[in-house]
Write a structure and sequence with these properties.
Largest sheet: 6 strands, mixed
Oligomer: single chain
Strand content: 15-25%
Shape: globular
Number of helices: 4
Distance between the termini: 32 Å
Amino acid sequence: MRPGVRLGIDVGRARVGVAVCDRDGLLATPVVSHPRGKDDEGAFRALIEEYAPVEIIVGLPLSLAGTDTPSTADAREFARWLTTLGGPPVRLVDERMSTVSAQRGLHQAGRSTRTSRAVIDQAAAVIILQNALDFERSAGRPAGAAVAPDEGL
């Protein structure tokens, strides 16, 4: 397992959930749900500066069959945009069912979806990051695929 803090990102149309892990890559914890389009650049530059991650993990929302969904292109575009901020490398990882799992966990804790929307985004980011950490620990290699900056952005 490579040492270093990582950020986990759940890209949504209204909000972006963010999680962080410890330096040893053992445990992901929620950080914030950022309202999409509200000074995204300033907010994400601040997160990169504050946490100094070695990597950013962005969830890629694929269908259960593994094909693209309407949100897949948005997540890819957001991941490419993150590479333009001058921060650490960005990786896309399969996030199938992360939001559903987050909603289920919050429901089991007695929270409704309506009152927990921002928390769901953070919880989904935690699941995405924790799954990537667990994969790397077991497989001995990083999860997902590296994102190359897009010249056209």
